[in-house]
Design goal:
Layout lengths: L1 H19 L13 E2 L3 E3 L1 H22 L2 H14 L1 H16 L5 E13 L7 E8 L12 H11 L3 H5 L6 H16 L5 E6 L6 H13 L4 E5 H7 E3 L5 E3 L2 E8 L11 H12 L3 E3 L2 H6 L2 H7 L4 H5 L4 H8 L5 E2 L5 H12 L4 E5 L8 E2 L1 H10 L8 E5 L6 E6 L7 E17 L2 E16 L13 E3 L1 E3 L1
Parallel strand pairs: 2-19, 5-6, 5-9, 9-10
Antiparallel strand pairs: 1-15, 3-4, 3-16, 7-8, 8-9, 11-14, 12-13, 12-14, 15-16, 16-17, 17-18
Helix pairs in contact: 3-4, 7-8, 9-10
The protein binds adenosine-5'-diphosphate and magnesium ion.
Length: about 450
C-alpha cells in the first residue's frame, strides 16, 4: 500500500513541481485520505442513484432557465443572506443584458445517504446537489485500484474483483471538451478558476490530463489573475493574460471568503458577462442552493418542471428527504416548533457550501431561539436527518492514529450535460464517489478534513 501510494505521491510531487517551478514555493504533498476497506452498499439503491442522475441534470438545467422560479424561490433568502443576494444580483444583471453565450455546461454531483432505520431497509435520500465545483471526480477515478490492491493483499481476492470501475474524470472532461469544441476556437483555452492555495490540485489535474489527451489547452488561473489580466473585447470574448478563454471551469467561488474584495466580485461579473462557456453559469449556481432544494420538495413543484413525465417526477421525489421552509408565516412557524421539539431529528442548513456549516442537535435550538422571531431565520432551511447504519472501518490520513471506528458513508453521483440553445447535446451519468467519515462527526466532507475517499462494494 505504502509503495502504491508512494508512487502516486511521487507522481503528484512531479506534477506539483511542474506547475509551481516558477513560483519557487515549497509545497507539502501528501496522499488523499482513504478508507482501509471498501464499504458495502446495497446494489438496488446504488443503481437507483445512477438511474436518476440524468433527470437531476435536466432538472437543474430547467431551473437555471426559469428566472421567475428562481426569483420566487430565493426571494426570502436573498433578503437576509448577503452572499446569495450578491450572486442573485449578478444573475439579474445578466438577464437584463441578455446571455451572451447559448452553450451551457453542467458538471453536477448529487449526494445521498441511506436511511437505514427501517429494519435494515435502505432508502436513498439526497443530501444535496452540487452544481458548483463538484469535486473528487479526479481522485475517485484512482481509488478503485487502491482498494483492489488492498483486498488482494488481505487475501480477499473475490471482493477485490468486485470493486467497480469508476472514471468520472474522463466523463467530466468529455463534457468540458464538448463545450470547448462547440465554442469553436482552437486556440482558446479551458480556464480552471482555482483557489489561492490549491489544496485539491491533483483532483483537478486528472481532468486537465484528460483534456490534454484531446489537445485541448488548459490554464489554471486565480481570481487575482482575472482581476489583473482579464478583459472582454467588443464581442465579449474573454481574454486572460492575452489568451482567449473558451470555458471557465469554476473550482473556486462558492464561498463568501472566495470574494475578499470588490475586484473579485467584478471579476466574477466579467466572466459571467463574457462569451466564454461558464461551468456553472450564475443561474445554474443559484439552482444548486439549498433553498432551491427545499422549494423543489414542496407539493406540485417538480410537476411544473416535468408536466408530462410523472415517472420522472416520481423517480426524483423518491430521493427527497423531508425539507422544510423557515419563511415567515404559519408554515415556517410550524417548522420552528417541530425543530425545537425534536432537534436530533433534523439538520439546520444555511446557504453555504464546502462542509462544516450545518447545525445539529441542541445547537439548532440555540440558533432558532435567536432568530425565530425575525426574518433572519429565512437564511436557513430545515431538513430531516438521515440515519445510515454505521459500518466499522479504518480511516487512513496523514498524522492520524490508526484505529477502527464506526463510520457513515455518503454516495455521490456525477452527472454532466451540455446544451446549445434548445438542443441537449449531452446528458450523462459519468461515475460515482463514496466518502466515509467517523460517526462522531455530524458534518464535513473530504476537503473539510472529516471524510475520506472510499469505494462501494455492492451487496
Ligand atoms: P455542504 O454544501 O457543506 O457540503 P451538505 O448539505 O452536503 O452541505 O452537508 C454537509 C455534510 O453534512 C454532509 O456531507 C453530511 O455528512 C452531513 N449532512 C447534511 N445533511 C444531512 C442530513 N440531512 N442527514 C444527515 N447528515 C447530513
Ligand atoms: Mg455536501
Amino acid at each position: 500500500i505504502e509503495y502504491q501510494w508512494g508512487c502516486l505521491c511521487l507522481f503528484f510531487v512531479m506534477s506539483a513541481f511542474f506547475s509551481y517551478n516558477s513560483l519557487l514555493v515549497f509545497q507539502l504533498v501528501t496522499y488523499a485520505p482513504f478508507t482501509l476497506f471498501p464499504t458495502p452498499v446495497p446494489k438496488a439503491v446504488f443503481l437507483q442513484a445512477l438511474a436518476v442522475q440524468t433527470h437531476y441534470n435536466t432538472l437543474v438545467d430547467k431551473i437555471s432557465q426559469d428566472p421567475d422560479f428562481l426569483e420566487e424561490a430565493l426571494a426570502s433568502t436573498i433578503a437576509v443572506d448577503d452572499f446569495t443576494g450578491r450572486l442573485f444580483r449578478i444573475h439579474q444583471q445578466i438577464l437584463k443584458e441578455g446571455r451572451s453565450q447559448s452553450i451551457v455546461l453542467g458538471l453536477n454531483r448529487s449526494d445521498y445517504m441511506l436511511d437505514q432505520r427501517n429494519n435494515g431497509l435502505s432508502s436513498l435520500k439526497q443530501i444535496e446537489i452540487n452544481t458548483f465545483a463538484a469535486s473528487f471526480g479526479g481522485l475517485s477515478s484512482r481509488t478503485p485500484d487502491v482498494h483492489r490492491q488492498i483486498l488482494k493483499m488481505a487475501g480477499r481476492l473475490e471482493e477485490s474483483q468486485r470493486i467497480l470501475d469508476n472514471d468520472p474524470a474522463a466523463g467530466l472532461a468529455r463534457a468540458v471538451a464538448k463545450a470547448w469544441e462547440l465554442y469553436g476556437s482552437e486556440r482558446a483555452v479551458v480556464m480552471f478558476l482555482v483557489e489561492e492555495s490549491q489544496r485539491n490540485i491533483f483532483d483537478q489535474r486528472y481532468i486537465e490530463y484528460e483534456l490534454w489527451k484531446r489537445n485541448i489547452p488548459t490554464k489554471r488561473k486565480r481570481f487575482d489573475d482575472v482581476c489583473e489580466k482579464g478583459s472582454l473585447d467588443q464581442d465579449k470574448r474573454l481574454f486572460v493574460d492575452g489568451q482567449e478563454v473558451a470555458v471557465v471551469y469554476f473550482r473556486n467561488g462558492y464561498m463568501p471568503q472566495n470574494y475578499p474584495s470588490e475586484k473579485t466580485w467584478e471579476a466574477r461579473l466579467m466572466m459571467e458577462r463574457s462569451l466564454a462557456v461558464k461551468c456553472p453559469d450564475i443561474s445554474t449556481h443559484l439552482a444548486g442552493t439549498k433553498k432551491v432544494q427545499q422549494v423543489l420538495a414542496k407539493p406540485g413543484v417538480l410537476e411544473k418542471f416535468f408536466p408530462d413525465k410523472p415517472q420522472v417526477v416520481e423517480q426524483i421525489r423518491a430521493t427527497f428527504a423531508g425539507l422544510y421552509t423557515l419563511d415567515i408565516g404559519p408554515e415556517g412557524d410550524k417548522t420552528v416548533a417541530m425543530a425545537l421539539a425534536a432537534p436530533d431529528q433534523f439538520v439546520l442548513k444555511p446557504q453555504r457550501e464546502g462542509g462544516g456549516n450545518n447545525i445539529y442537535g441542541s445547537e439548532i435550538c440555540q440558533v432558532l431561539q435567536g432568530v425565530k422571531e425575525s426574518t433572519e431565520r429565512t437564511a436557513y432551511i430545515l431538513m430531516d436527518k438521515i440515519h445510515p447504519a454505521p459500518v466499522q472501518n479504518c480511516l487512513l490520513r496523514r498524522d492520524a492514529p490508526l484505529q477502527i471506528s464506526n463510520c457513515l458513508s455518503e454516495l455521490g453521483v456525477f452527472g454532466v450535460y451540455v446544451r446549445q440553445g434548445k438542443d441537449t447535446v449531452m446528458n450523462d451519468c459519468v461515475g460515482h464517489l463514496l466518502r466515509t467519515k467517523s460517526s462522531e462527526h455530524s458534518d464535513g466532507g473530504v476537503a473539510a478534513g472529516v471524510a475520506v475517499l472510499d469505494n462501494p462494494l455492492l451487496v
